[in-house]
Amino acid sequence: MVLLSHMQTFPAIETEEEALTNSMPAAAVRRGGGTSFFRNDGEKLYKYGEELTRSRKSTLVKEKTTLGHIDMILGDYLNHVLKEGREIKVKNRLRKLYTNNGAQWSHVVFEHPASFQTLAMDPVKKQEIIDDLTTFSKGEDFYNRIGRAWKRGYLLYGPPGTGKSTMIAAMANFLGYDIYDLELTAVKDNTELRRLLIETSSKSIIVIEDIDCSMELTGQRKKDNKEDEDDNDPAKKPMKPPENDAKASKVTLSGLLNFVDGLWSACGGDRLIVFTTNHVEKLDPALIRRGRMDRHIELSYCGFEAFKVLARNYLYLETHELFETIRGLLEETQMTPADVAENLMPKTSPADPEGCLKSLIGALETAKQEAAAQKKSEEEEGRKKEKDSEMEALNPIENGNV
Ligand SMILES: Nc1ncnc2c1ncn2[C@@H]1O[C@H](COP(=O)(O)OP(=O)(O)OP(=O)(O)O)[C@@H](O)[C@H]1O
């Protein structure tokens, strides 16, 4: 069907003879309500698929065309046009945000305005991510050639408010993909998980946010559970159920790993899977090893480069004399991009950029003082503990330790 519509862009002429004597490599003849297609490769004539008789060829072929042209048009070029067409269609369609209610997906139109341009982070790191995503999204032939499923795993980690969710939205907008926001604790068991995942479409990002809160996977829990063999096998541990929920999820780590590793291969199409966590150290290494989560991206406290992106977004400021003060404070204290953004948010109309910068400086100075006070109290606490244990060692009888 697609091929026919493409062929009709070749000259449509009245008679077969005209088509065959035409120097064009291909032509369409409309006659008797139907359309016939002809190829003229310079050596042979074909009525689409069928070779014409030698006598007709010799009388009808007047001009030679090269075989290369026709193959280029009907082969690589046509494939390229179709591929580009599909990509444009994907980019222009309304994107969807799916969420699961148990075993059912429901969706709304996804209209998050985040983009890589507005995402505040180190520009070098940002460009690396953009390049990686671009390579992935154009990598169908590559993945076919190396015999791997066309998928890629991203682990985004860092403190709350550093832009993990914002980055997922920026990725979806950049690639033109749908998002499937998978709430694992609402999934009953591995079978239900499999069904949900098979239903996801290609060109999508499957997101599991706060994965450490969804699963019983921490090293501590592994050590604590020694009752039986199954309890010691993290792969068989169930997801953490929502608090006070009688219907505990029976999805296991192995169920999730099977999906990440295997099932996508059968689904076809390109998919990204993204896990987010505030506590990367709590995750089972099996879950995040390379090959499963191919890229580990840390989103961290706001640096000066990230601040400049926010100042441009929020205040249209490229530079200002207060920037140097802010640079120094950002080096001395830790503030999330979310908190920096909140201080830069104009609170008057018209906006007062200098007032916003001063408000940020005030907040950074407060954060610095609080951090110093916290450090001091922790040091005092440490010294006190040390002193107590020294006293205990010196007076074992008095302390009841004999
Ligand atoms: N790197 C960033 N660039 C631009 N805006 C950011 C960034 N980080 C945070 N923000 C702002 O802060 C808000 C909260 O950020 P976001 O939800 O993406 O953080 P998060 O890391 O996913 O937090 P959590 O771990 O709590 O889910 C966003 O709506 C956005 O406005």
UniProtKB/TrEMBL annotation:
Its cofactor is Mg(2+). Residues 233-247, 373-390 have a biased composition (Basic and acidic residues). Residues 219-247, 368-402 are annotated as: Disordered. Residues 150-303 form the AAA+ ATPase domain. It catalyses: ATP + H2O = ADP + phosphate + H(+). Signal peptide: none annotated. Keywords: ATP-binding, Magnesium, Nucleotide-binding. PROSITE patterns: AAA (PS00674). It holds the Pfam family AAA_lid_At3g28540. SMART domains: AAA. One of its GO terms (molecular function) is ATP hydrolysis activity. InterPro entries: AAA+_ATPase (IPR003593), At3g28540-like_C (IPR058017), ATPase_AAA_core (IPR003959), ATPase_AAA_CS (IPR003960), Mitochondrial_chaperone_BCS1 (IPR050747), P-loop_NTPase (IPR027417). Belongs to the AAA ATPase family. BCS1 subfamily. This is AAA+ ATPase domain-containing protein. It comes from Mikania micrantha (bitter vine).
